[in-house]
Specification:
The protein has helices at residues 46-53, 142-147, 151-162, 178-189, 202-210, 224-232, 247-256, 298-310, 329-338, and strands at 6-12, 20-25, 34-43, 64-65, 69-77, 89-93, 107-109, 112-114, 125-129, 133-136, 171-174, 195-199, 215-218, 237-242, 257-265, 287-290, 320-325, 344-348. The chain has 351 residues and is of the alpha/beta class. The strands form 4 sheets. Strands 3, 5, 6, 9, 10, 17 and 18 form a 7-stranded mixed beta sheet that branches. A 6-stranded parallel beta sheet has the order 13-12-11-14-15-16, with helices on both faces. A 3-stranded antiparallel beta sheet has the order 2-1-4, with no helix packed on it.
Amino acid sequence: MNMPKTMKAAILVELQQPLVVDEVELPSTLEVGQVLVKVNNSGICGSQLGEIDGAKGEDRYLPHLLGHEGSGVVEAVGPGVRFVKPGDHVVLHWRKSQGIESVPPRYTWKGKSLNAGLIATFNEYAIVSENRVTRIEPSSDMEVASLFGCAVTTGFGVAENNAKIRFGEAVVVFGAGGVGLNIIQAAGLLSAYPIVAVDLHDNRLELAKSLGATHTINSSKVDAKAALQELLGNQGIDVFIDNTGQPAIIELGYELTKAQGRVVLVGVPRKGRNINIYSLPLHFDKRISGSHGGEAVPHVDIPRYTKLLNAGRIQLKPLITEHFKLDDINVAIQRMRSGELAGRCLIKMDA
């Protein structure tokens, strides 16, 4: 096939500024291990908000493309690609899977090189590394499929691989966004009880309740520590999962978990914002650990979770609460920041 010459894309030009939506030039050929995908849908993950804000410090790759969760159709493949072919419906994901890890694509914007890494989804087309796409059935709901790129695989992976939730354990999920909602749903499948969702926004807490939270706490209206202590009493917390990256909340989780409880960090604190804990409990089997995308293995996990979806054991459609055009991506980002948006929003490239 002839490669498209240009595409519309959302570009991070400067930290803490709106993305610039503009035409970008694609390379004329694909390198070894590269896959060209026509993007249908892209989710926006909280980690992209962190990238825009410069949460991890200086960004040496500006200007660059963004997005790591989406769905689309393969248009062409470069030399050596074995696991997908033109016409395949695929999930685009940031976690490594099977296949070649290629070099990053060489996009051009205003005559200069534009960085993109091995995956970017805030764009009409994506040249991605083979190990960042996983084939799905052509009959798949492509909106729901995009959530497998991060929100579902991370959320379920956190519950299964990081927290290792067991029957009847008390689980607190602090932050009920796209990933948090899936942690809650997975905790329900694993028969945790109670499952407590904590957030600043009632709309997110209502959605959390519909997906398996047995109790909810709005920490903008009540003191979360007092509410958790009142709710759980002497039972204590077995698993505390933080999606906020706020040091004070991480410290709270460490304080409130049982002597042999687990604290799992999904959210990442801004660079320089350190946590302060009394380490002695760590010597007696209290655990605190970070999660890297739930340690998901996409080509293994996506088929497993798809089976649950098709059997009606999990709900994913209710997670998608708003749709936006690529031109309106900054509006979507602002609605995420404000909390007006309850679940996951999708950027629809053909809208």
